[in-house]
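In this supplementary section we document a worked example of the pipeline. Step one takes a protein sequence of length 143 as its only input; no multiple sequence alignment statistics are reported here. Step two produces a three-dimensional model, which step three serialises into structure tokens for compact storage. The input and output of this example are shown verbatim.
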Amino acid sequence: MDKLSKEQRRRNMQAVKNKGSKIEVMLAKELWKRGLRYRKNDKTVFGKPDFTFRKYKIAVFVDGEFWHGKDWDTRKYDHKSNQEFWLKKIERNIERDKEVNTYLMNEGWQVLRFWGKEIKSELVNCVQKIEDKINEAKGKNST
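The serialised model returned by step three reads:
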């Protein structure tokens, strides 16, 4: 049974942001600090990545563990209420993520996806992975 009333749960879920979350802001500040310029939530790129580096065709997504189904096979039955709804919703999100990845890669984009907790605990490593992809793309562009 849910510890919150229906109204409290509804307000909590409505407060969840789809852009501008704390983890996105953390990553954005670190990228900016390193001189990496990006576009946020670019609607012209399929899947609306959280960060895009158009010149290098790199798309970066910041995925929340709950919404994007981290460890889904072991955690899918953790939802105690409205289980049918959440199973369908999160499995569709996982499927959509795969579709977006496939489409972008077929269009020549490099796709990076980071979990929220990964950014919180390993921010420098995440930024380094992005920098490495950019440097790799720069090398390809110069030849």
